[in-house]
Design brief:
- Helices cover about 15% and strands about 35% of the residues.
- By secondary structure, the protein is an alpha+beta fold.
- The chain folds into three domains: about 5-65 and about 200-225, Pseudouridine synthase (2-Layer Sandwich), CATH 3.30.2350; about 70-190, Pseudouridine synthase (2-Layer Sandwich), CATH 3.30.2350.10; about 230-290, Archaeosine Trna-guanine Transglycosylase, Chain: A, domain 4.
- Strands 1, 2, 3, 4, 7, 10, 11, 12 and 13 form a nine-stranded mixed β-sheet that branches. A five-stranded mixed β-sheet has the order 14-16-17-18-15.
- It is globular, with a radius of gyration of 22 Å.
């Protein structure tokens, strides 16, 4: 099996995403290793790690929708918006009814403006926001547009609130809980977070990075094609494939709009590149994995 491909990891709570990547990096050297979609240290669940030439596919994995199971505790707050910071009771709030919680959820579905937490990896003048927050600096982080595809109420019995959330890249679940609680007239801290899926990469199929070793890690590699298997596919003949791999354009009647992307496969069904539609039935190479 090729040493280039994708690992679907189940990151445990208590380690950083970088720690998990480093575990793979030690096994895969000298191949490149990169990940798509950082998880906070306290969070657990799906972390997609790309190895070798598959690292070029990281941006496409990052674009996949993400699904979370999140638990919040209402009626309290912390500077980090989770249990990592000093948690204090919120005075003056009230206990939202189940009906109020259910009614508030649709207001946070769709494209919404969200201010990232002060304790986040957002960069401000070249410094991470959490570094400045720890030093007591006053932060001015601009809201940004994120996409929330759906929010389902799983359980609510004050103070515990559990939600299933499907969202786009760049969403902070801590911030979503913070803003929802404020809309309900109270405050909240995130008590736990499990990412159950990134697109078709699901936690049920994921492997604990601590279980990987030099003998078994390659066995858990999934083909690079898994990153884009939901796309249209193009299987050019030998001449067109050579033309694509050397930077040329070819005819491709895929029915895709201008700017649409397709996975380029060889005769063996292996992903060898990504092409983009640049004109009527004209495809141009975007990424070459060979």
């Amino acid at each position: 099996m090729s040493s280039a491909g994708i690992l679907c990891l189940n990151k445990p709570a208590g380690i950083t995403s970088r720690d998990a990547v480093n575990m793979v990096q030690r096994l895969a050297r000298p191949l490149k290793v990169g990940h798509a979609g950082t998880l906070d240290p306290a969070a657990e669940g799906v972390l997609v790690v790309c190895v070798g030439s598959a690292t070029r596919l990281v941006p496409f994995v990052q674009d996949l929708p993400k699904t979370y199971l999140a638990a919040f505790l209402l009626g309290r707050s912390s500077p980090t918006d989770d249990l990592e910071g000093a948690v204090t009771p919120f005075e003056g709030g009230h206990v939202p009814t189940p009906e109020a919680v259910q009614s508030a959820l649709p207001r946070f579905v769709g494209e919404i403006e969200q201010r990232p937490p002060d304790y986040s990896a957002i960069k401000i003048a070249g410094r991470r926001a959490y570094e400045l927050a720890r030093r007591g600096k006053s932060l001015h982080i601009a809201p940004r547009t994120v996409t929330i595809r759906s929010i389902d109420l799983i359980h609510y019995e004050f103070p515990e609130l559990r939600l299933r959330i499907e969202c786009g890249s760049g969403t902070y679940i801590r911030a979503l809980g913070r803003d929802l609680a404020m809309a309900l007239g109270t405050r909240a801290v995130m008590a736990s977070l499990l990412r159950t899926a990134i697109g078709h990469f699901r936690v049920e199929e994921a492997v604990d990075p601590r279980s990987l070793d030099r003998q078994n890690w390659r066995e858990r590699l999934r083909p690079a094609y898994d990153a884009v298997r939901h796309w249209a596919t193009l299987r050019p003949d030998d001449a067109d494939l050579r033309r694509l791999l050397h930077g040329g354009t070819i005819r491709a009647e895929l029915g895709l709009p201008l700017g649409g992307r397709a996975a380029v496969l060889n005769d063996a069904g292996e992903l060898v590149g990504v092409c983009q539609i640049v004109g009527p039935n004209i495809a141009k190479p975007l990424i070459n994995l060979s």
